[in-house]
Design the sequence.
């Protein structure tokens, strides 16, 4: 037996024999996993345009023996296999999101040894490849679990997708979820058990516009936008629970010699507390009203008033799975089993939706190292990538009812 597999056998000696075999398969088939990771990343999948990547994932599942594959109305890919389970029992859902933040329809991926580089190679090319690797290993080792394992690839996780795919999945999920495990990016220590809430708005000021000289005195939407940014910057945010306010984008106007007809900003509010988010939302709305009144208060006579409009672009829920919950304890033990200290963390992931619904859920990485996330230079290094996949295998099979020998 190769040294790596001897070390694996020692480390996982208490796992059931089929799960042990599945973990061995993950090590032996790692080259194929990296090939899947390269290939899926090369299929562009901007949020809302995930169809080509979804079809590719569905085809791969079918090829490796997951013969019950379909796409739901939202565009999510759901894969199941014909194995014996407790009929009518809830299932463990293992998920990874399809979309990326990039608009490129044909991302370029390069490889230098264990290092892969390309936009989306980690987030979430790694997670999607991990789903295929886990599914393939389960089939090859003929792993049967008391509760069914279902694989799902979700749409709309990034940015303005607002977790759309997972919302749709959890709204009418069959079979019912016993637990949800989202696989997102690289790493083998992180366990996201708490959902970071957010509210995102576009705030627009509308005015009559006009010539910068002849119509000076008309209310200026860009001036109002700037005043609002200053007002938001002055808001005192609580340190505990941690809360952030970010003006992420700003724009407006037609030309250098025109009073703008429109000015707008986009704002991202985040907190671990839903109550704090609600209070901060009211504070922001009050600031908009004050700025609107102030700009109109200085406008010239006989000019039309400026108006403000607030449009919500997204809302992600808060929530947490207790650190002592069985799923979290299982994930921590699996992490220690591969020789790594577990790190509990907070994040905005697909797991946020089931957590907010009271369903046990976590998000984990799929091994390896990564960086440059959400940039064209994003990279993934496969150092300890196999161990991360083996940890995921122990977590999903343990959640599905496979006990240690």
Sequence:
């Amino acid at each position: 037996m190769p040294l790596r597999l001897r070390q694996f056998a020692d480390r996982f000696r208490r796992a059931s024999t089929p799960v042990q075999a599945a973990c061995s398969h993950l090590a032996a088939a790692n080259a194929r996993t990296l090939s899947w990771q390269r290939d899926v990343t090369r299929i562009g999948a901007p949020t809302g345009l995930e169809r080509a990547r979804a079809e590719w994932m569905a085809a791969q599942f079918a090829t490796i023996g997951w013969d019950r594959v379909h796409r739901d109305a939202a565009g999510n890919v759901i894969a199941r296999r014909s194995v014996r389970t407790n009929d009518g029992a809830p299932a463990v859902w293992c998920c990874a999101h399809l979309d990326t933040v990039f608009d490129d329809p044909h991302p370029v991926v390069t490889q230098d040894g264990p290092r892969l580089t390309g936009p989306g190679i980690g987030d979430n090319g790694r997670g999607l490849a991990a789903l295929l690797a886990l599914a393939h290993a389960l089939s090859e080792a003929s792993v049967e679990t008391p509760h069914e394992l279902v694989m799902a690839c979700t749409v709309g996780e990034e940015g303005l997708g607002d977790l759309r795919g997972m919302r749709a999945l959890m709204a009418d999920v069959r079979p019912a979820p016993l637990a949800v495990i989202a696989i997102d990016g690289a790493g083998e220590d992180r366990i996201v058990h708490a959902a970071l809430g957010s509210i995102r708005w576009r705030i627009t000021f509308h005015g009559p516009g006009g010539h910068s000289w002849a119509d000076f005195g008309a209310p200026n939407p860009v001036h109002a936008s700037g005043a609002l940014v200053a007002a938001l910057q002055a808001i005192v945010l609580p340190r505990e629970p941690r809360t952030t306010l970010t003006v992420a984008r700003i724009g407006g106007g037609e030309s250098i010699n025109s009073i703008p007809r429109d000015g707008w900003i986009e704002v991202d509010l985040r907190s671990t507390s839903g109550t704090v988010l609600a209070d901060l939302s009211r504070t922001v709305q009050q600031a908009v009203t004050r700025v609107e009144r102030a700009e109109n208060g200085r406008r010239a006579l006989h000019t039309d008033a400026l108006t403000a409009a607030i449009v919500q672009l997204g809302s992600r829920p808060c929530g947490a799975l207790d650190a002592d919950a069985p799923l979290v304890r299982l994930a921590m033990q699996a992490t220690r089993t591969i020789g790594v200290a577990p790190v509990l963390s907070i994040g905005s992931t697909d797991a946020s939706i089931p957590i907010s619904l009271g369903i046990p859920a976590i998000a984990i990485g799929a091994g390896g190292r990564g960086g440059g996330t959400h940039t064209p230079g994003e990279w993934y290094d496969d150092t300890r990538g196999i161990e991360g996949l083996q940890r995921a295998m122990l977590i999903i099979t343990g959640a599905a009812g496979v006990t240690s020998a």
